[in-house]
Amino acid sequence: MKRVGIEVSAAIAEAAKLARVEVISAYPITPQTHIVERLAELVADGELEAVYMNVESEHSALSACVGAAAAGARTFTSTSAQGLELMHEILFIASSLRLPIVMVLVNRALSAPLSIWCDHSDVMAARDCGWIMLFCENGQEAVDSVIMAYRIAEDRRVLLPVMVNIDGFTLSHVIEPVEFPEQELVDSFLPPYNPLFTLNPERPVTMGAYGMPEIYTEAKYAQEMAIKGSKAVVKEVMEEFGRVFGRRYNIIETYNLDGAESAFFALGTINENIKTAIDALREKGKNIGLISLRLFRPFPSEELIEILKNLKRLMVIERAMPQGAENTPLFNEISSLAFHNRLEIQLENYIAGLGGRDVDPQEFITIATNPFQKDGKMNYKVIGVRG
Amino acid sequence: MKIYKTLERYTEKPDAEYIASGHRACQGCAEVLALRLAFKVLGKNTILAMATGCMEIISTPLPLTCWRLPWIHVAFENAAAVASGIESAIRILRQKGKIPDVPINVVGIAGDGGTSDIGLQALSGALERGHRMIYICLDNEAYMNTGIQRSSATPYGAFTTTSPPGKKSIGQSTWKKDMPKIAAAHNIPYVATACPSYPFDFLNKVKKATMVNGPAYLHVLSVCPTGWRIPSELAIEYGRLAVRSGFFPLYEVENGVFRLTYKPESLIPVKEYMKGQGRFRHLTEKEITEIQERINKEWERLLRLCEATKP
Ligand SMILES: Cc1ncc(C[n+]2csc(CCOP(=O)(O)OP(=O)(O)O)c2C)c(N)n1
Ligand code: SF4
Q: Which of B145, B161, B224 to mutate to test the pocket of ligand 1 (most atoms within 8 A of CB)?
């Protein structure tokens, strides 16, 4: 395996190449652009045998992926923020049609005010679209996740689209050391897409029929069973990936959690700063850890319960601002788990890092040493908000 | 069976039906008739991407289907984008030897709403990219599936539920968007208007569309007895009147060259076309005269275009 220093966006494009994607359909948006530019180059240079579709919008980008996947091609798309919002309608349709499209979502704040910088308001607004959702913390994970994503998506027990989340700029634009697996090894891990049904004149099928009230519920129930069932497949694929490539992944990652009484809970690159804070706190004798999800949808409830059982305090760090909701999306999931499983755990909710705002490790040290007391107005504390 | 004999010119299996009977279209629906005819020409090796609209709703109540062709419906505004994705997939899969190298007609279909309003951007993108696909707009001049609301293809003066005539309204207050010319402005190899009331003209155009190398756009006037407020047995007749009055001229644009494919000796008055239709019932003589003047102008313009682009 060769190890190179490479911009993570370019590495993701290389990963798509290793996955031998066949149709790429995407529309540029900062900070996703480097991924699609690199893919366009790979196709233009004949290094990747694929069709690169220059579509006129994200709505069409995903629509074209739906058509291409339905016709039997391995498809790739990538977007950010407003682009994801423009795709929103088709996100639901892609998953309901059970099409194994892979999208790299380069996380970015939603307008307004217009912001090109990272937070998770885009993915959180699309969290219940029926896509399997993975999160990455570094370039290596991003590369490996794209390869695993196809294997998961195309598994006949799954057949669902997968979204690979990487933080805009803080991950997409940094140069990192990445090990690229050999093509043959990827080929052995990821066989060609062999769909159950395609739009094939020899064996015509109807896709996307409408459902009367007598059948809609059953159709949705079946889809829900599929995404719930995909968790076992995700675990299987991660395990096999570890066997084949030697890099092991878990649906939940933890840091310094053994014997910890309290923990942070967060997604994405902000974890790096949290880890720095944890290291400092540990030196002061505070036993505190970190829980992060590599798999966010389907939500790994059972596995989380097992971990949360042993904790007294959990600090949920959310990079999205709910508007008018009881609480933030991540916190809602966690508190629902805690309530329904009678977990004796103190839950605190923090919003941090909106629209690319840096969150200093010191901030996490403060949080860890001064528990947030609700002031009656807000259920969460917004870190660093001025006046 | 005279029609079958003649149909043999276009198709190997004239009696094959690719949209099965038992669908739920209204009686006299010319949209479904247009589809039935078009697929006879397109044949078995066809993949169809359809927008939300009447033809989708009448044909596929899960778990039933009327389609004997591979068919996909994704959303209202994206038939062209979906079809272009299918075409791209077929191209690369064929190149990689994953599917047999046989010609496949990739067809996108939408109503006038799904084409000239919400789907225009996706259509324009697909035409510009030059996919080898056929796009058929089934123009019944309103959003019929949602219950007769106006579209940008609704004719001036027509009643719809969202362009109701009233003390301060004539009904639809804008002129029909010229979708075929918008398509032609993309400089694609083939654009045509057609109407199933002129079946052989229509079949010819579908056939031609399958033969060009690049996108083809067919704009098909499809009479909707329900929305136009006419008796269902008169659908074919009204299609003829639309053509003969110049309300909907039959022409094609082949590589930029405009040509009328049916030229009436003289146009019948538009009043003949409009008078029996409930959607125009409220119009005064004066208003109809104004419409007549505009139709005359448009007709003259079309004749001049044909003349000017003559090779
Ligand atoms: C994004 C979106 N907006 C609105 C609708 C509702 N809708 C479904 S079909 C339709 C009208 C279809 O009209 P047209 O394309 O002219 O086809 P027709 O039914 O007349 O054949 C509308 C408004 C929708 N499905 N999706
Ligand atoms: S409403 Fe009109 S277009 Fe729709 S099925 Fe009925 S006749 Fe056909």
A: B145
Closest B-chain CA to A25: B85
pLDDT tens figures, B173-220: 999 999 999 999 999 999 999 999 999 999 999 999 999 999 999 999
State which amino acid sits at residue B165. Answer: P
Q: Which tens digits make up the pLDDT trace of A320-368?
A: 999 999 999 999 999 999 999 999 999 999 999 999 999 999 999 999 9
Name every residue whose Cβ is closer than 8 Å to that of residue A178 and which is 6 or more positions away in sequence: A3, A4, A5, A6, A8, A11, A139, A140, A143
Do A99 and A132 touch, CB atoms closer than 8 A? no
Q: Which ipTM score applies to this complex? A: 0.96
**pLDDT tier for residue A1 given thresholds of 50, 70 and 90:** low
Which ranges of chain A does DSSP label H, i.e. alpha helix?
A: 8-18, 33-44, 58-70, 81-96, 121-125, 139-154, 183-189, 213-245, 270-283, 301-308, 329-340, 361-369
Ligand number, closest to the Cα atom of B232: 2
Residue A241: both structure tokens together:
């990936």
Whether chain B has a CB inside 8 Å of the CB on A63: the answer is yes
Interface test with B, best of A54, A63, A89, A205 (most B CBs within 10 A): A63
Asked if residues A361 and A276 have their Cβ atoms less than 8 Å apart, the reply is yes
For chain B, residues with pLDDT lower than 50 are 1-2
Q: How many CB atoms lie within 10 A of CB B169?
A: 12
Q: Name which of B140, B132, B138 is nearest B209 in CA terms.
A: B132
Beta strands B251-254 and B190-194: pairing type? Answer: antiparallel
Q: Are A8 and A139 in contact, with CB atoms under 8 Å apart? A: yes
Instruction: Return d(Cα B311, Cα B309) in angstroms, integer.
Output: 6
